[in-house]
Design goal:
The protein has 245 residues and is of the alpha/beta class. It has one domain: Ribonuclease Z/Hydroxyacylglutathione hydrolase-like (Metallo-beta-lactamase, Chain A), CATH 3.60.15. The protein is built from 9 helices and 12 strands. Helix 5 packs antiparallel against helix 6. The relative contact order is 0.13. Bound molecules: zinc ion. The site of zinc ion has 5 residues, from loops.
Length: 245
């Protein structure tokens, strides 16, 4: 399903799966994340080239997770950009890690990397950390759009992984709130306005309090910001990951 956010920004996403974002700038199109499935990435490429009739300037990976990077194989002939940490983490994926995944993915890492920030015309890529140490966001100021990657999950529980850092994640979200933006495109879930940043902050702050022992599990479960999010199994999985730290 392709949704138009502004004249220059499109999101391709299905219930819960990782969003792929298409950003159109005068020089061409920037694709943010490539999904877990090469077949899906191929369809997105066809849409860009035959419907939008635009050239792909480059592809960005917001972080190393396979559901954001395994469609890279379809864009091997195009420039792929990520932080160098993302590229490093992808190169470390071993057979053990890969065999757990539904698509027998070929790992294609970035052809160009950046340390902290990369700019292309009106678009800025910025490594911020939080969800994973290499998590990056894409800011398209002119269109007042933030592509938040997995820093934001909207309507569903976030994926808190073993290398997530809750305090860093909270700080990053507070900083993102200061941006002059109208639209936030999450890594998973529907696009929204800045409200979804606040909901993520409240969610993670409560998780932090649960870990500190200042609120109970029952209090969390009665909060709509938890009970109304889809995929509750992600909630318990996230807690397990935090405890395993
Ligand atoms: Zn992720």
């Amino acid at each position: 399903m392709i949704q138009r956010i502004t004249d220059k920004v499109f999101v391709v996403g299905m219930e819960g799966s990782a969003n792929v974002v298409i950003i159109s700038i005068p020089k061409g199109v920037i694709v943010v994340d490539t999904s877990l499935f090469p077949e899906k990435a191929q369809k997105i490429r066809e849409f860009i080239e035959s419907v939008l009739r635009k050239e792909i300037l480059f592809v960005v990976n917001t972080h190393y997770h396979p559901d954001h990077t395994f469609g890279n194989v379809v864009f091997e002939d195009v420039q792929i950009i990520s932080s160098n940490l993302t590229s490093e983490k992808m190169r470390m994926m071993d057979e053990e890690y890969l065999k757990e995944l539904p698509s027998n993915g070929k790992v294609v890492t970035a052809s160009k990397t950046f340390e902290e920030e990369y700019r292309e015309g009106p678009v800025t890529l910025k490594k911020v950390g939080g969800h994973t140490p290499d998590s990056s966001v894409v800011i398209f100021e002119q269109e007042r759009v933030l592509v938040a990657g997995d820093l934001v999950f909207n309507d569903l529980h976030p994926e808190i992984v073993q290398d997530s850092k809750i305090t860093e994640w909270l700080e990053v979200l507070e900083n993102l709130k200061k941006l002059k933006i109208d639209w936030v495109i999450p890594g998973h879930g529907n696009h929204s306005d800045k409200v979804c940043l606040d909901l993520m902050i409240k969610y993670l702050a409560k998780i932090q309090r649960l870990l500190d022992g200042t609120i109970t599990y029952a209090e969390i479960l009665s909060d709509e910001n938890f009970s109304k999010r889809k995929f509750p199994e992600l909630f318990s999985w996230g807690l397990e990951n935090l405890i395993a730290h």
